Amino acid sequence: MVTTSDGSPADSDTLSYTFSRQISEAAGLKRALLIEVMAAQGFVNYPTERIDKACPDAKKPKPLGSINVMINRGQSHFDMTGGVMLADLEVNPIIAVSDIQRARDFYEAKLGLVPSIELPDGSLMYQCKIGRFNLYPSPNAGTAKNTVMGWLTDDIERDVRELKSRGVVFEEYDFPGFKTVDSIARLPGERGAWFRDSEGNILAIGQFDKPI
């Protein structure tokens, strides 16, 4: 039975799957994330031997503590005790959108991104070269005045040109000490360019002067 965190039966909007397992720093976490994704899709009794085949290095984990994972409306929350620190984990930005279909169309047509996973509540997960992010429906979309997410590139001029050719409109700024030229601003040690998605969220691409 799928239950919420208080033990009551889960409704259609909430999936909760809690497990504890000693993990290794890499392989065990991969296994944990795989179980998390399966739980988000409702497969809470998925045979663990199949998961172990996908993550063979996790069969003999190094004792580091336990993981408690709860899936709530498609979003994951980790409660970790012992050994594993947040610095060891992948960051997963979660971005609010007013209209999930409109946002999906924008991210595909303008940014060339397609969802890798569709979660039960309609949220979308996108996998990039390094890292991933989610879009989820919310009436608060577009209210943040700051940059909500950015990508690092090795050629910002090329990418600005490409995105403009796809119809992306970049923000232009002209403040004391901060000015865009051809949509790109010079900052100490880096350059950046900003644009808004279909929901009003501010996104950015940036390039450091020296590789990091």
Mind explaining what this structure looks like?
With 212 residues, the protein is α+β, with helices and mostly antiparallel strands. It folds into two domains: 1-89, no CATH class; 94-208, 2,3-Dihydroxybiphenyl 1,2-Dioxygenase, domain 1. The chain has four helices and twelve strands, in the order ααβββαββββαβββββ. The strands form three sheets. Strands 7-12-11-10-9-8 form a six-stranded mixed β-sheet, with helices on one face. The chain has a four-stranded mixed β-sheet with strand order 3-6-5-4. It has a two-stranded antiparallel ribbon with strand order 1-2. Strand 1 and strand 2 (75-81) form a beta hairpin. The longest helix has 14 residues, at 27-40. It is globular and about 55 Å long.
Topology:
Blueprint: H1 27-40, H2 48-54, E1 66-72, E2 75-81, E3 94-97, H3 100-109, E4 117-118, E5 124-127, E6 132-137, E7 147-152, H4 156-165, E8 174-175, E9 178-181, E10 184-187, E11 190-196, E12 202-208
Parallel strand pairs: 3-6, 7-12
Antiparallel strand pairs: 1-2, 4-5, 5-6, 8-9, 9-10, 10-11, 11-12
Sheet with the most strands, sense and barrel status: 6 strands, mixed
Q: What is the 3D shape?
A: globular
Distance between the termini: 47 Å
CATH homology-level superfamily of the largest domain? 2,3-Dihydroxybiphenyl 1,2-Dioxygenase, domain 1
CATH architecture of the largest domain: Roll
What count of structural domains?
2
Compute the number of strand runs: 12
What's the short version?
With 212 residues, the protein is α+β, with helices and mostly antiparallel strands.
